[in-house]
Structures
1.
Amino acid sequence: MPVSLSNPDGLAPVDLYRHVSVATGGRTVRVAGQVALDGEGRLVGAGDLAAQTEQCYLNVATALASVGATFDDVTRLRVYAVDLTPERMPLFAEGVARAAARLGVTPAAPLTGIGVQALADPAFLVEVEATAVLE
């Protein structure tokens, strides 16, 4: 596996992700922001941040699998969420946990959460993009 993840001493403890990733592979994969659309283009989880987050992570996994990658190869996740507040973070974490359980993975790559006013469609509550490195 070309990716090593860690939480260095001296940084705030986190459970949802790791602060640092080191990649040693040679091929970089960038997955465009994934929204809560299923394979037929239908919205999943209207108004439900947890359900939409779960679908976004499932879509990222599908995109990764298309090039022979998994969440083990991910070096960075970037999440854009509408009206991101501390009160809504448990819903985001629930969606990640549900996706992880379905996929049998622990998506722990460094994560940046960015609160936004809106996404491309008013029905979208969250969008997730990923960078991975393959050998």
2.
Amino acid sequence: MMFKIEAYIREEKFEDVKKALDDLNVNGLTVYQVMGCGIQRGYQEIVRGMEVDMQMQPKVKFEIAVSSEEWAEKTVDAIQKAAYTGEIGDGKIFTYEIRSALKIRTKETGYDAIQESE
């Protein structure tokens, strides 16, 4: 069974998480800059002399496909350790089962579609 991992982390933890995934030899990731809010509900900022409530926080979203439950657990653990600060707003990690995968170029499916090949 294959798994997709989505992790939403603080922007300043991007390099730490990327290095943790590189050290684990996790390949095939997609990264987005996103905005969101959780329990911290944003912050206040002074804009042109006025206090403004900023409801959304900048975050980084990682999307990663892995080939087994064992790899999903290793990947989630690496992200959690690298992204941790202990403060509100550290982020969230979600794991989903992948029903199917297709590599467009080679038409490989399933496990073969998410493995690195020549």
3.
Amino acid sequence: MRLIEDWPVDNAAAAVVRDGRVVDSHGDQGRRYPLASVTKPLSAYAVLIAVEEGALEWDQPAGPEGATVRHLIAHTAGYAFDSLDVQAAPGARRIYSNAGFTVLADTLAEASGIAFADYLAEAVFTPLGMADSALEGPAGSGAVSTAADLARFAAELQNPTLVSADLVAEATQVVFPGLNGVLPGYGSQKPNDWGLGFEIKDGKAPHWTAGGNSPRTFGHFGQSGTFLWVDPDAGLACVALSDRAFGPWAVEVWPPFSQAVLDDNTA
């Protein structure tokens, strides 16, 4: 945690989770931050719950013609980054899409009869005790939360209680392998691997995690200066929130910070 004190931000908070409990932390764990795209794993988890409950099916049609729920959550439906313009056939390219997550949320709301923000709160936030978290905007970028709450979510990803471990394992493996695409902030990745709502590190370079993070590491970062990763091989998860938008500063300081987390907390 020591390196976070050198970040060029006014406020930051972080937590490290091992086996469902916080083993290290920094900053105000109860301060609420906008998550930007770290919202996506939270929204994706609500979709996992809906699939396991039978409200949705991975292969049901959703989005542009030929696309499914699986395509939407894995950024392969063909939608543009921030609009419903269709730029590719479903399954042909990995096009990171906020718009696709909006359609995904609308699909779940229609299937369940519950507004997506309410479904997310009832299915994920409330049972995990994430009392300071809420979806205040789009399903792909509009959540606010705290380090303490995201540590609870990270613990859930390590030891699932709301869905089966098999489903979490499926969600955190590569879906539609071999597709190229752009990782926002890091350029073209060949391939640009993704799971069911979770970005997969795999062999990506450059990347926002550490060189020592295993290829199986999954999670997400947000343009608001936030990230969450889970490294199954290290048995660790890390959450970091800040009040400065993502930029060159984050590209510079996040990887060594995550490496220090691994070095300080891996037995």
4.
Amino acid sequence: MKTDDPWRECQADRLQRALDLDEPLEVRKIRRSIRDLLRARLHKRGVVVALSGGIDSSVCAALAAEALGPQRVFGLLLPERESSSGSLERGKLLCGHLGLRHRIHDLSAALEAVGCYRERDQAIRRLFPDYGPAWRSKIVIGDFGAGALHHFRLVVEDPSGVVHERRLGLREYLQIVAATNYKQRLRKSVEYFHADRLNYAVLGTASRLEYDQGFFVKNGDGSADLKPIAHLYKVQVYALARYLGLPAAICSAIPTTDTYSLPQGQDEFYFSLPYDKMDLALWAYNHDVPPPTLAPALALSREQTERVYRDIEAKRRATRYQHAPPLLTEAVPQVNAMV
């Protein structure tokens, strides 16, 4: 006998299986789409992909190699002096595993020249005057679970290993983020140099969480010609990595920003929850699942789950401009109709 609330009948099973993926079918669909879009829309010979050693870029490279053959996928490893050594090693491991042509281009000198480190450190020293080259730092969000409003905190580690933390003011936050955004934008410039050189397209590597919630830098890692996994939740990307037989070190890699000198998880800096719970929360929000139904699956209270939903909405509003093309004061129909 049916009830008035069909979710109550199937909530446990549906939530448990909501993000299950038919991996062989998904690979076939993405492989076909990459080939078709590259030929019919982009008119390019292959793809360039920046390899961070993380799960998203690794799966994108593997899918492109499946679609086009490894000889038409060019990998770029773009470390700088604050990158994790593990990221570079996993990137090289993937290139060897897939048989990709690749190049390593250290961006430290270029970032130094444009003032990335200098501008960031200047802002940090307004909070920690002794901050210098031997120190490390990152930005984190306040404890979501405690029920407080989101705010950003600066965490620094001094040369003796002692960690200090202080709440960030808006001026310092904006300057630190603006400076570190040089990293994503410079990486993208290098990607497009090689894409132009080879007559290739640039492959974007964002998965659903990053794409939906605006976790990318405009004209930085948000720029691309083709984004093959933007519709897939992070746990689905991990499932594809295992199905595609990627190395274990990549399949078990935890999502990080690899932007700050201190290790920083994506959930520390941007998302309310770890990626697996955030995936489920976003899926549930997109499918109109009521907070009381979702809350037990997240191990949160109803009130906390409602805050997660409000945070999803707020991030979509705040980052809408990142998805938008340049605004025109007057339409140019002869060009706009072709897009």
